[in-house]
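Quick question, first post here. What does this chain look like in 3D?
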Amino acid sequence: MTHLVQDSSKAIYSLAFKTLLSLAMAALPALVVATILGITLVTAVDEAKRDFERAMSASRRLADIRVLVEKELGLVSRIPAELDLKNVDRYAQQIINVGLRINAEIGALVSDERISSFENARKARIVRNEMTYTAAEVIEAAGSFAQTTALELVNGPYESGSNRLASLFVTMEENVDKIVERARRDLNDSSQLAWRLTPVALAAAVLAVAFGFWMIRRYFIRPVLDLTGSVVRICESGELNVAPGLSRRLDEIGTLSNSFNLMIADLAEARRNLIARSEEINVQYERLSVAVNNMPQGLCMFDGEQNLIISNRRYAEIYGIDPSEFEPGAPLSAILERRAAVTINYEGAEDLVGELLAAVGNREAWHRTSELADGRVIAVSHRPIPNGGSLAIHEDITDRRKAEARIEHLAHYDALTDLPNRGLFREDVDRALSSVERGAALAVLCLDLDHFKQVNDTLGHPIGDALLQAVAERIRSCVRPTDRIARLGGDEFAIVQIPVDQPVDCISLASRLIARIAEPYDLNGHQIVIGASVGIALAPGDGRDFDRLLKGADMALYRAKQDARGTYRFFESEMDARMQARRGLELDLRKALALGEFELFYQPLIHLGTNRVTCFEALLRWRHPERGFVMPDDFIPLAEEIGLIGSIGAWVLKKACNEALNWPGDIAVAVNLSALQFKNGRVVLDVISALGESGLPARRLELEITETVLLRDTEATMVTLTQLKDLGTRIAMDDFGTGYSSLGYLQKFPFDKIKIDRTFVKDLLDKPESIAIVRAVSGLGNALGITTTAEGVETVGQLQKLRLEGCTEVQGYLFSKPRPAHELGSLLVQLDDRAKTAA
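> Answer (accepted):
Ran it through. Tokens below.
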């Protein structure tokens, strides 16, 4: 077939070529005349057109230049009257921009010698340079507030240059007019020539066309008509017969005839193949039918008359109808009535059918969901199709709706205990609060489990989850049907009690809850005993909205856990005041470091052998602009709780090292480290940064830790302490003797110093037990080569006793209270004088 198409194409191209060749030979004389005429006219017209376009372009440029010159003149004239230098600078920038455009336009204009002679072009450039220079002088004079000078320059040199430039433009306009006149004259001459040659060209063209038609009819049209007759006979008879006679020709007509005969033969073969492939088409149809009938959705299609075209088995199965009732051609109304009769058990079936028919008739896409009599939910998606019909997809979404309902439930209920969550509890409380407006009362109880974290940590989260479920069941057994329970998160629950005879009902419920939850649990072979603390807020006395009541109950719960655990507390107004005060202190503390409100005080440590100061302990103070001095015991625990201790501790290290560098001799500085500084893992880097920034030798820095540090992740803490000691710093254990395992830690890590807690020093002269402890610690330190420091020395008697027991250093108010850094110089002088006197 490809070869046939190629031969036919070649023959058609050959015929076309010969036709064109015949016309060309016949029309050659006319073509010669027309060519001469065309060349003459085109040359003259093109030349006149170029001249005219050049003149128009020059005329436009001259107009643009005049406008720009006027604009520049207006800007320059405005400058002498301007006293605001910002406006002068703005005008100057505009003058520069306009000047650049004027120069560019003049350059383009004078490039054509017919518009401007070389001399005029030179003069125009000179005048523009003079105007630009004068404009610059005007700007400079205005910038120096020499307004008179600027005005004289504008009215003198600048305006003179503008006038000279205008005269040059007049000369250029005259040249433009001459070019336009010459172009008009040339066009007139060309027109007259065209009128003389046109009759000759027309006569030659008529003769050529006549000759060409004669050749085409003889050699091409008649054979093609013969071939066309063969095509008509095939169309009328339907018989694919070849065209006789023409195929014997050796020219292009013969080639076309042969191609036509071959095409007829191919068509006959194609007809036979089409008949043979009809069975394959039937197979494909069967496959399509299988696919449609096995769709999980029901499908039905209707034509423009709303008669059924096709439907699958699933469509009949969804509505429980025999598929034979949905034969092609069935009206939509009859199908809808049959569906309604089978699946709808109410009298509105006719209304539903009418509604659906109206919706289909609107020729719009729609989606609707309906519930059948057996509870199943069917979603119908309807789409109109181009032929006026429609296509509908029916899907049973019952399972999907159940899943959505489950998701909706999970959005409002706790997945573990199936109790309402915080969001649903808020809605319950808000609804209950509406009864408060009518004179009733309600209570919100917050319940938190005691020792629940230990259960999770020791027995694992699966046991913890089972315990929470058991607790939820016990809470359910304690409340009335009108009360609502919720799990707020973790091991915290809440109850809204309505109505309530306060406070009797609240106390009764809280007591029941505490007693019931405290009963032992047997979970997977584990005997578990926990407790519960309860906080109670009453409405309307403690608040009339959810957030305030829950906040009050939470503060009461906090008090209950602080006081004793396993008990209940009612909200009191001073609780809120304390929380507000704590919040205010927290906000001030977050700003204190940035505002420079922290300050270091120093207390000396005296060596009992030399009576000299060996070290100053850095003690943090907060000088608040309104609160005054805030002691560490009031804000350090809060700083640890809110995560600020790391940045505060780093600041103390740097400040102490920088100030210690100014002390005489090898006096060291001792800095206390919080357990949380070890937890965040930055303490080593903070120490390195402080030493590096200050230049203080590491041996002059002592780092004091308490036993609390060693109780947290002992292995990691020991690694950190080793790294600090490797830096050259000295490590001291503070408050020695107050913990449970202090002696064990002395064996695990080579401390440089142990500090005897002030509680033992305070009773040193009154209690033999304190003397024994001090003696034992001093002896242990001397045996291990560890310095021992006694804290809280306030009397001479305590000092003498510590000296007798072999203590190495002492610290306390007997020698000095903590002093700011600027007082340490005078303090050292006083202590040195005292040491000399004692010696």
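The first strand starts at residue 298 and ends at 302.
The two ends are 129 Å apart (CA to CA).
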